[in-house]
Amino acid sequence: MARKTIQLYLLLTLVKNLGVSSIAATYVVFLISRGLNLFEVNLVNFVFFTALFLCEIPTGVVADVFGRKVSFVISCFLFSAGMFMYAASHSFLWFAFAEAISAVGSTFASGAFQAWLVDKLKHHNHAEPLGSIFVKEQWITQGVSIVGAIAGAFLADKNLAFPWIFGGVVMCVAGVLAFTFMKEEYFVRQHVSLQSGLKSMRATILASVRYSMQSRAMRFILVMGILQYFAIQAPNMQWQPFFSRFLPDKTSFGFLFGGISICMIIGSAFSLRFLRFMQDERRALVVSQIGIGAGIMATVLFNWFPLAVGVFLLHEVVRGLFRPLKDVYLNNSIPSQERATLISFESMSHHIGGMAGLLFSGFFAEYASIPTAWILSGGILIVTTLWLIRNRRV
């Protein structure tokens, strides 16, 4: 039974990520084709960040009360509905509504899917380490995301709405598979409420703020994360319109997205070697953060595609480098009894930087130019990171 549970978990991981990734390489060019400008495109994604932040706790309560299976099935069908709505929409308000539905769908799956696996295996007395399962999950996620993005981009060459329709169908299939085959016979309904969930969220934030006031390392990580998520919204949201002048068709966006994913994997693989070379976790984080900012700025300075895309992909390698370095520094700097709370707070802080970055980069990209947005975003990241080095309080 444990073996079948693992196989089902990996199958659902594959199907879910295939559906979600199908729109990754053409998301922005689709919205532009439907009449949105660059600022409005960022505002749509701003809705996603906001809904994600507001709904994380309430949807977690649903998983505790009604079960992880119910939560994951709802997630799949909400994602499916959001994608179909995207394909049919032609105005900012409808796109924002579709984005909100997808964001709520994302929060329903957050934590619930993995919790189902762990609880199910414990119920069947599965004693083997879970690490190997999660490694397989990561490889499946990364591999199928590349395939899904390329397939979606190929469909976009036929019609830019086709990736959304394909993704909606695939997410619907994931929901049907989950509803049919996921079992939770051991589940005992917990007596929790939205009020208790909000109290838990408040307690998490207060405890994290108190610790951050006392810990220089935690303040450093929080500020670094907020600054980086602010700066990377420009390349995240505008790489498609920026490179569109160089690319012959929409399928090319899929291959470029595949290159981005591979570069981040390469960066992650070399992160510990880079840390040994730098001989200091804090120094390694600062150097990589400055490298990210420099890459964002340098990409838009070149009008020759091989050089522009080469610098852009190199910046993606550095972004892949940063995440494991940050995780090492964070986990080495915080007490074990506060670990879950502080990691959760650190993750929540990314939304603040991301939302501010979406407004900033979207405004300058639309009302100045994409190169202006990238140069300002990268420059701010470099200057503020250098300021962090000199600020002894952080």
Description:
- The chain has helices spanning 2-21, 27-33, 38-66, 68-88, 92-109, 112-123, 131-156, 162-181, 194-214, 216-231, 233-243, 251-269, 271-278, 281-299, 305-333, 339-367, 370-390.
- The model has no long low-confidence stretch (mean pLDDT 88).
- The chain has 394 residues and is mostly helical.
- Helix 3 runs antiparallel to helix 4, helix 12 packs across helix 15 and helix 14 packs antiparallel against helix 17 (370-390).
- The protein is built from 17 helices and no strands.
- The longest helix has 29 residues, at 38-66.
- The protein has 2 domains: 2-183, Up-down Bundle (Growth Hormone, Chain: A), CATH 1.20.1250.20; 204-390, Growth Hormone, Chain: A, CATH 1.20.1250.
Summarize the structure.
One of its GO terms (cellular component) is membrane. By secondary structure, the chain is mostly helical.
Specify the biggest β-sheet: none
Total helices: the number is 17
Task: Determine Rg (CA atoms, Å).
Answer: 21 Å
What are the segments in which pLDDT stays under 50 over at least 5 consecutive residues? Answer: none
CATH-derived architecture of the largest domain = Up-down Bundle
